[in-house]
Amino acid sequence: MEGPKGKHAWMVKIGEKGQFVIPKEAREMFDLHPGSTVLVLADEEKGIAIPSKKVGQSMMAQVFQTAQKEELL
User: Fold this and answer.
1) What's 23's DSSP letter?
2) Is the pLDDT reported for residue 4 higher than 80?
3) How many domains does the chain have?
4) Alpha helices (H) along the chain
């Protein structure tokens, strides 16, 4: 489903093993291939999100920076 410019939404089904297929359009958009690693985030109120590689890397860098600062205290 196409939303406002740059926004997309897809419906997927969960299989018996709890897996789902990321739609082809999304895999192409985010350069995902077999063996790619993705970050899955969950919030009990807001749901599940899979951020882009760039956003995920930025988030992890912030987590590690915060952890290093806390170690110095």
Assistant:
1) P
2) yes
3) 1
4) 24-29, 53-72
Mean pLDDT value of segment 8-12: 93
Provide the whole-model pTM.
0.69
Cα distances from 58 to residues 11, 13, 39, 42, 55, in angstroms, run 27, 29, 12, 17, 5
CATH code, domain with 52: 2.10.260.10
Q: Which domain covers residue 50, as residue numbers?
A: 1-73
For 59, the token pair is 């988030």
Instruction: Name the nearest CA neighbour of 55 among 34, 30, 36.
Output: 30
Close Cβ partners of 51 (under 8 Å, ≥ 6 residues apart): 39, 41, 59
